[in-house]
Amino acid sequence: MAPDLIKVEIIERQTVKPSSPTPHPLRTLQLSVLDQMLPSHVYFPTLLFYPANNNITGSGGGATSTDTAAMRMKERDYFQHLIQSLAKTLTHFYPLAGRLSKGHDIVQCTDDGAEFVTARVKCSLSQIFEHPDPDMLTGLVPATGQPDGDGDGDATTLPLLAVQANLFECGGMAIGLNFSHRVVDGTTSSALISCWAKTALDDGHDDQAPFMVPKFDAASYFPPLDFLNSSQPSPPKLVDIKYITKRFVFDASKIATLQSHLASALAPHAPTRVLVVSALIWKCAMEASSKASNIPLGSRPSSFKMAMDLRRRFEPPFPQNLGGNVVANLVVVATPSLLKGQEESDDETIDLKDLVAKLRKGLEQQKETYPTKLPFDSIKAWQWDQECQKLTGNADMYRLCPGSWCRFPFYEANFGWGKPAWVSIPSIGLKDLVILIDKRDGKGIEAMLSVSEEIMEHFESNPELLKYASVNPRVM
């Protein structure tokens, strides 16, 4: 479906505050050094789609004025239930109802509230699902994180969580969320979605905490650094290059075939599905970049940067309900020596087995050397992050930044009208970024790749990629 065929009508914007005031001892949250190393302007979106259940709209034919009035009343009740359950959820996730301090190293948890937008969409879910365009989906998520359009502005005035409830003509619903990455990572954001859904489903009758209640005390484990407070990274400026996002779907059977093909290179341990899909995308992106820029494939390095969840890396492991950003960056560089001989190759391809073996080896070596003992060495962690930036700072280097949202329980989020039919990510608009997320079966993977138009033209026509992936197939 083309982006210009979807029309979103905003009904109302309001602020949702926690249903109970945040206790005074919790009203100032010191961010950890891991939070400090993330830009304050970056937000990450999530979309959950629910098919019609006829609880709100009828069959869609021959509605009278009385029917329309009744439907509008049901809409209000529907949205109000989401708002009330979100307010209860925010009592547990109170930092997301706060605002960043001037130095962006503290969250003032004074219950300023999350933004809540209600909207109607002038199409049906089936139209969205036919050929979902990631750029089109951006209208279903509330815009935030860019105060004045060019990346500048006062981040202290922005909500740290924004939600948009979209009602389709067919009665289907899409819930779009935008989280401040400065305050939470994927684990914490998925916990909020699960908690909110459970609260809405139980209708507030459960006196117990509805889900894994987070503890926002990461700064006690990962001490902040004072000198980082005044050296916030500047938001990236928009450049005169058009980056587009496209969706690539890897079915479980194709991933299994790819894993089997690469098993010998990764013996004795079987390669994970995330690793093999990431490696294939990196390989094809390098080849596409080489063709788009007319630079021989083996003549320049390429970097692969991904996040590692630290909760299970420590001894003893941290609990999964440790809130905030509990992640570290890992970077593997494919040097010209790794791509040996490619400058002399006529077809300019990379040996995938060799690439994926060295990728896994590089990731495992970094996992072993990253500080994972208490007391945590914040200076060493900061130096690690600086080294990662240095490794990827070469202007001649091709960079790919993958992120995996696989294994997060998004498809279990039942707000009272069943589980999602589809969970996705709209276009984020960041250069050379790929986000992996589970298919509904929990075995396949959907990849949202954002690259320049020139690179995408070569990437999406790569024969090896097309052996394992479908380009933007129908959702259902």
Summarize the structure.
With 476 residues, the chain is α+β, with helices and mostly antiparallel strands. It has helices spanning 33-36, 65-90, 125-130, 134-137, 186-202, 252-262, 273-293, 352-369, 378-391, 453-459, 463-468; strands spanning 8-16, 28-30, 43-50, 99-100, 106-108, 114-121, 161-168, 173-180, 243-250, 302-309, 327-334, 398-404, 422-424, 433-438, 445-452, 470-471.
Please tell me about this protein's structure:
- The strands form three sheets. This protein has a seven-stranded mixed beta sheet.
- Mean pLDDT is 86; it is low at 57-63, 146-152, 233-240 and 341-346.
- It is globular.
- It is built from eleven helices and 16 strands.
- The two termini are 14 Å apart.
- Helix 2 (65-90) crosses helix 5 (186-202) and helix 7 (273-293) packs across helix 8.
- The chain has two domains: 3-228, 2-Layer Sandwich (Chloramphenicol Acetyltransferase); 243-406 and 415-471, 2-Layer Sandwich (Chloramphenicol Acetyltransferase).
- The protein has helices at residues 33-36, 65-90, 125-130, 134-137, 186-202, 252-262, 273-293, 352-369, 378-391, 453-459, 463-468, and strands spanning 8-16, 28-30, 43-50, 99-100, 106-108, 114-121, 161-168, 173-180, 243-250, 302-309, 327-334, 398-404, 422-424, 433-438, 445-452, 470-471.
- 28% of the residues lie in helices and 21% in strands.
